[in-house]
Amino acid sequence: MATTIAIETPLQDDVRELVAELNAYLRPLSPPEFQFQMTVEQMADAKTTLFVARDATGRAVGMGALKLETAGLAEVKRMFTRPEVRGQRVGSALLAAVEALARQKGVTELKLETGVGEGFVPAHRVYERGGFTPCGAFLDYPDSGHSAFFAKRLR
Known about the structure:
The protein is α+β, with helices and mostly antiparallel strands. Helix content is 27%, strand content 30%.
């Protein structure tokens, strides 16, 4: 399937639908206090850049964001692909786009927080294939046992 990936505003109805689908998927997988979800309004902040994957018909089928944190550190946020495109490397392409922008912006370390358990195994595979390795908690994330943390040095 042909997909395109581009930087887009999160303040679009179809992106709001993607975010709602992601939140619905995540809700039963972790306790609410250990879900660190950004709203579309938060994703529209100047420190965050959203990539949207679209299929040949223009339908939004995935997303991933880069959030600049401290000097040299950025975070991968809101990675999601719709079930019908999973296994087609859309997630890997989104992750590569996020990483390329991070490199352009001079980021030296890219990190992410995700959940643990069977529902997160496919995401962990995408991150590991993308060169990310497990790391400890970072920023203000608690080391609760409900999160897995990954990092990738870019320089």
